[in-house]
Amino acid sequence: MAIAPDKPFNDLSLLPPPSQKIESITILKQESRAAVALAELKGLAKTLPNQGILINAIVLKEAQASSEVENIITTHDKLYQALTATSVRADPATKEVLRYREALLFGYDEIQTRGFINVNSICRIQAILEENQAGIRQLPGTALKNDMTGETIYTPPDDREVIQNLMRNLERFLNEEPGETSPLIRMAIQHYQFESIHPFYDGNGRTGRILNVLYLILQGLLEIPILFLSGYIIDNKSDYYRLLQEVRTKENWAEWILFMLKATESTARQTIGQINDIHALFNQVQEKVKQEAPKIYSKDLIEQLFIHPYTKIEYISNGLKVERKAASRYLKALQATGVLSLEQIGKENVYINHQLYKLLRNG
């Protein structure tokens, strides 16, 4: 059942917005294109030998990109090194990106196990991101400012009860049946609303971008978290923030929704291309190992090399349930074929699938 609009809190209305503001021929045509791309992505993901390949690779890429939106910059090298080599001390930016990955996977697990997402789950996601328990804002004075001029461009609600009411309304919107409005259009609406509530002292942008993909999974448009809009937002950052603000000041829902739908279509198409590239490389590596190291070949072994582009004896031993001596022998044989290269990172020996790493970094 749809939620009826009510009296706005601090000029921020409850969801949903009036239907005439969010539906037009242009929007519905773009929604159709985005839905087709998303359905193709969902189906193609199932054709991979192991969907863990995508989850690990794309979640880490999204963690990096979403953090970059907030000017938290690190590299793929540092991320994989910190994940794989326990002796490596990660720098603060890398730690923040890895917390994003942890928060996203927590949210995904919440949906898998509980079938819904609530305010407590959202607070937990933000707590993981920020490594604190500050929770929903209780103190007034929060204002969003122009980084260049220092001018205040938006003051979000600052009364705790108001914020809690808005968050409860958002929770209902996230979990209710979409009705006649497409879930993709509703994703754009919920993202605007969350960012405008701005419920936390810090981490609102990254929490909101996590909610986007969780909502798509909740609505059955995806099965695993593999569509992320942060790269598109980075490439179109000024439009993203301008259109968010125009919904607040001009009720320009149409342009905002179109932006998010185009982001969805573009990102889905990009991810489809990446999956096809992973498929091709997987088959290539599979044939190479069959020919050059047939004694150690198994499809499960090749999968492990793609789930962990940076791998080590422990990963192979645990993934294949074999002794460490056997895992070591497999890795050395794969190094001899050129599929893997050996590097010492910190105090540990790490084997790198460079072709896959390059594909994931540049894709």
Automatic annotation (TrEMBL):
Q: Which domain of life is it from?
A: Bacteria
Under Gene3D superfamilies, the record lists: Fido-like domain
**Which positions fall inside the Fido domain?**
117-262
Spell out the InterPro entries in the cross-references: Fic/DOC_N, Fido, Fido-like_dom_sf, Fido_containing, SoFic-like, SoFic-like_C
Pfam family for this entry, one: Fic_N
Task: Report the PROSITE patterns cross-referenced here.
Answer: FIDO
PANTHER family per UniProt: FIDO DOMAIN-CONTAINING PROTEIN DDB_G0283145, PROTEIN ADENYLYLTRANSFERASE SOFIC
Q: What is this protein called?
A: Fic family protein
